[in-house]
Backbone:
């Protein structure tokens, strides 16, 4: 039986699980009892981790997905389970690690692809570079690295803030972000499982890197509400976390998911993605 063990079975992993064919067994870890109950309602065997022994799950797994983010002490999965995973490396058909396009750092709005050198500009980006390297260092592991742009989808869109009047169009000259709808993340992961290529690295983003203020403006227009006024980045009140996202500006190429995996994006730009969210009640 094909069995996916998903470490940190969150937003993107849940979308993948919904795409897997009948007959797959999915075991997902989470940190809370409430989330574990929600996963079970979706047909996922849940395990609260850290805190439970996953040896039997690793023994059963044919596929691994790692969504858990690095912590101050490094990658939490490797910290506890590296030796066990390494001992079983050649038994896995596919291993996927969800990373971030933040590993490329700031490019002043220029393009990057999977062959670009890594220049992380933030602590989070540096932690991801270290985690990627640690996973690649496990001999014989059929590892696939997925570098995700900004994720949006059901429950993660700009509409609610626009409706509430709390959305802000923060403008920083030359700033562009790449983004990806969660449905497209799921279909890329599924395509990779069906066509494994150990060692491959894929950027997951849509075709239209865009300034963040344009996305907010389009969301307001779709709702028929006033477009929020622009706020200069230098004058905007932001948390350190939010401000750090504006430290990087780049456009991310996604040719490899199309050429190697045959993926055709469901939402090739934010306009398509936002229209779908609104249609579905988002």
Residues:
């Amino acid at each position: 039986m094909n069995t996916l063990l998903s470490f940190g079975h969150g937003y993107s992993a849940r979308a993948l699980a919904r795409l897997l064919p009948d007959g797959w067994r999915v075991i997902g870890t989470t940190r809370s009892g409430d989330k574990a109950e929600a996963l079970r309602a979706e047909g996922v065997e849940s395990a609260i981790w850290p805190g439970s022994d996953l040896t039997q799950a690793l023994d059963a797994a044919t596929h691994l997905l790692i969504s858990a983010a690095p912590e101050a002490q490094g990658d939490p999965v490797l910290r506890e389970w590296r030796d066990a995973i390494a001992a079983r490396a050649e038994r896995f058909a596919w291993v996927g690690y969800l990373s971030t396009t933040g590993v490329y750092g700031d490019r002043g709005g220029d393009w990057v692809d999977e062959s670009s050198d890594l220049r992380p500009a933030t602590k989070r980006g540096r932690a991801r570079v270290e985690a990627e390297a640690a996973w690649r260092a496990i001999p014989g592991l059929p590892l696939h690295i997925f570098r995700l742009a900004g994720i949006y989808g059901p429950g993660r869109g700009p509409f609610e803030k626009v409706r509430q009047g709390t959305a802000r169009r923060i403008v920083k000259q030359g700033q562009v972000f790449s983004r990806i709808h969660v449905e497209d993340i799921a279909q890329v992961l599924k395509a990779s499982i069906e066509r494994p290529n150990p060692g491959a690295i894929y950027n997951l983003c849509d075709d239209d890197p865009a300034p963040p203020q344009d996305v907010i403006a389009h969301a307001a227009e779709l709702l028929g509400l006033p477009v929020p006024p622009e706020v200069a980045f230098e004058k905007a009140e932001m948390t350190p976390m939010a401000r750090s996202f504006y430290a990087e500006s780049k456009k991310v190429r996604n040719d490899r998911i199309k050429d190697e995996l045959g993926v055709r994006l469901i939402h090739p730009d934010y306009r398509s993605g936002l229209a779908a969210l609104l249609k579905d009640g988002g």
